[in-house]
Design a protein that fits this description.
This protein is mainly α and 145 residues long. The chain is 60% helix and 0% strand. It is built from 6 helices and no strands. Helix 1 crosses helix 4. The chain starts with 22 loop residues before the first helix and ends with a helix.
Amino acid sequence: MTLAPQYPLTRYEPSPLIDMSAKAERERLSPAAIKAFFNMMGKWGVRDEDARSLLGGVSNGQFYDMKKKPQRTLDTDTLTRISYLVGIFKALNILYSEKLADAWVARPNINRIFGGQTPLAYMIKGGLPAMQTVRRLLDARRGGV
């Protein structure tokens, strides 16, 4: 009789999974996510046109309305994009001084992932998959999972 392999015991539990398909969860998270997004864009010095691209190409009207009135419910895609950007922001501020953390996304990077372009340009071109790659790179650099 063969025993099934077992995972080693650990004192760490996975974070609870947030149901992004549930409107109530998106309603709860959206206002804070919008506020965080605009704060990050300000710290990073990102132009509004590029910020709109990071959100998935929202229109001018929708973008400025969101800026004026953050009390709204975002769709799953936009909330996921902001989530990746928050993780990137957090990792940068763990790894570097505030000044470098805020400048990092706009500085040309010789890492082969970026090929000499800025991480911001890479994320704008690559969308959600590129944001995930940048997040994973920074998490790996800081010794995260």
